[in-house]
Design brief:
Among the domains are: about 100 residues, Serine Threonine Protein Phosphatase 5, Tetratricopeptide repeat, CATH 1.25.40; about 90 residues, no CATH class; about 120 residues, Alpha Horseshoe (Serine Threonine Protein Phosphatase 5, Tetratricopeptide repeat). It is built from 29 helices and no strands.
Length: about 600
């Protein structure tokens, strides 16, 4: 916006910390309309308001410009009349647009720009909005008539720009490229700075959509190097942020995204500010700058809410998830609870509300309120079903079941696991890994409570895991089956399954889990008065595996007990001495001596 006749100063963002710049946006005034002192300043404010879809404000700013100092300058007046006619046309009010078109045509005639006046009088609204198919045919014919053997003309550039908009939406960016490129070349030759900036902004986006990323960066740099308003600058910064993000240059992407958010925020382009801040939030999270990410999400939510966009719901959800990832559970609860409550009503977005309730459940679980969490997840499942997201509903029930099981609420856990299994088992549409989880969870729960039908679920899980799971998952299912068999009093089968699980864990390169399975098998053998076999397995776990000290303590303790059962006191004493040394070493490591 800074130019020869402009009076609104554009602050080019500096090198202040991202967090400080985001805080400034969060606390910036948001409702008052800015004032300009000159007609040129009102042009910029009108353009920014129109770009931000605040059409009433745009029209009011342009009207103010027509009576402001500098309004007698023909170029200022022509721009203001174009803005006013364009705003009303975009709002579908051709009747209100027509007088401003007529005034502009008359002024062009007074200035001796007869051909431009004739073209605008002939085409009228076609130059002010996206033309339809019939209008595009007319524009094509006019463009041909205006072709003076390649000589540049404002009229032809204007027509080509409108044709490019139509081609973009009707045929795609490749079709728009030659049209907008020619328009830019003409405007550059004619030194029409203001019109050139808008055309180059369009060209940069077309280049981005056709994967000409370096060309898009170069074009955007041209726009940013010229005096132009904040909305255009915000758009170019956002384009550059997108390119750098896609090219895995996160630091450059973050720098451009914050500049875009600042420009959009200052000019009231709420949707653009929300998008730029959301991009910055994602980039910051990927760089482990979680505090910055939270601030960026807050800016994004604030801007979306100021613009009254429905996207604010998803942005609030992202903010809540970011807080959860950071372990800020109390703050996450506030955000997600407010979001859930805000969405109660007749036109609820069931999918988003379900996700908000899932996050809310995770937050209150960490805040030691598990019963609330189960309630939230149960409600979430209902919303997911209303949104026809059966897989998500199944996951919600499985989460609630796992929490209930951890609280020894067997009846509640069985209900949720059963519902999760019913929803996961969708025939041809079944997600095999989710079905595996449901069968595993319900099967284990039933066996733990001495219901042998649980083995059927575990056996089915075993068949699925061979085809769809990993080696480690196969080992895990087998290990669960071993423990379930023990709960059902089938010790011999349990030992065989536990030793099989140990081999499978070892094959999956998990020595710790393999040793744990062996120690479990040995413990069952000891309980069955098969001390000699138990001692052998305990010794294998302790001596043949690379395991943690905690598991080594368990293995040595079990081996001591087995040796004493076999009346091998000398051997038991040796192992017990090893065990005592290990425990003393661990105690010293946990409680280092204080310095005198």
């Amino acid at each position: 916006m800074k130019g020869d006749s402009a009076d609104l100063h554009v602050e080019i963002p500096g090198s202040a910390p991202l967090s400080s710049r985001l805080q400034s946006m969060l606390h910036a005034p948001s409702s008052a309309e800015e004032e300009a002192q000159t007609a040129r300043g009102w042009v910029d404010l009108a353009y920014e308001a129109a770009y931000g879809e605040r059409f009433a404000s745009a029209a009011a700013a342009a009207e103010r410009g027509l009576t402001a100092p500098g309004s007698e300058d023909p170029e200022n007046r022509l721009m203001l009349l174009r803005v006013l006619s364009g705003i009303h046309e975009m709002r579908g009010d051709s009747q209100r647009s027509a007088p401003y078109v007529a005034q502009r045509v008359e002024l062009l005639r007074q200035l001796g720009r007869t051909r431009q006046a004739d073209v605008e009088a002939q085409l009228g609204a076609m130059l002010l909005r996206e033309p339809d198919r019939v209008e595009a045919e007319i524009l094509t014919r006019v463009a041909e008539e205006l072709d003076d053997d390649g000589a540049p003309s404002v009229e032809r550039a204007d027509v080509l720009s409108s044709l490019a908009v139509h081609s973009m939406h009707d045929e795609g960016p490749e079709a728009a490229m030659p049209l907008i490129s020619e328009a830019c070349a003409m405007l550059e030759q004619l030194q029409r700075t203001q019109a050139l900036a808008s055309a180059q902004m369009f060209l940069a986006h077309v280049q981005l959509l056709t994967d000409q990323t370096e060309e898009a960066l170069a074009t955007s740099e041209k726009v940013l190097s010229t005096p132009t308003n904040r909305a255009v600058r915000g758009a170019m910064n956002m384009l550059r942020a997108t390119v750098h993000h896609n090219e895995d240059r996160p630091e450059q992407a973050a720098a451009e995204a914050i500049s875009s958010a600042e420009m959009y925020c200052a000019s009231g382009v709420r949707k653009g500010a929300a998008s730029a801040a959301a991009l910055l939030a994602g980039i910051s999270a990927s760089l482990d700058q979680h505090e910055v990410a939270v601030l960026a999400w807050r800016v994004s939510v604030q801007q979306a809410e100021l613009g009254e966009f429905t996207e604010s719901r998803m942005l609030s959800l992202a903010l809540g998830q970011q807080l959860l990832d950071m372990g800020e559970h109390a703050e996450a609860e506030k955000v997600l609870d407010a979001l859930s409550l805000r969405m109660t009503g007749s036109e609820v977005d069931h999918s988003t509300r379900g996700r908000a309730l899932m996050g809310l459940g995770h937050a209150v679980t960490q805040l030691k309120r598990p019963l609330e969490a189960m309630s939230h997840w149960d409600e979430a499942a209902g919303h997911f079903l209303a949104a026809d997201e059966v897989d998500e509903a199944a996951r919600a029930h499985l989460a609630a079941g796992a929490l209930a099981a951890s609280l020894d609420r067997a009846h509640t856990a069985k209900h949720h696991y059963s519902e999760g299994l019913r929803l996961a088992d969708q025939g041809a549409d079944t997600d095999p890994l989710m079905l595996l989880q449901a069968l595993h969870s319900l099967g284990h729960l039933l066996c733990r409570h001495e219901d042998p039908s649980g083995l059927e679920h575990l056996d089915r899980a075993g068949r699925i895991v061979v085809e769809h799971g990993t080696d480690w998952q196969h080992a895990d299912i087998t290990d669960t089956r071993a423990r379930s068999l023990t709960a059902l009093g089938r010790g011999t089968e349990a030992v065989a399954a536990a030793l099989e699980a140990a081999d499978l864990f070892a094959g999956a390169s998990d020595e710790e889990a393999a040793a744990d399975a062996e120690i479990f098998a040995a413990t069952v053998l000891l309980q069955m008065s098969r001390a000699e076999e138990a001692e052998t397995v305990f010794r294998m776990a302790a001596e043949d595996r690379q395991i943690s000290d905690a598991l080594l303590v368990s293995a040595l303790e079990g081996r001591v007990e087995a040796l004493r059962s076999l009346a091998r006191s000398p051997d038991a004493d040796v192992v017990e001495a090893q065990l005592q040394q290990l425990k003393e070493r661990l105690a010293t490591a946990e409680d280092p001596p204080r310095r005198p």
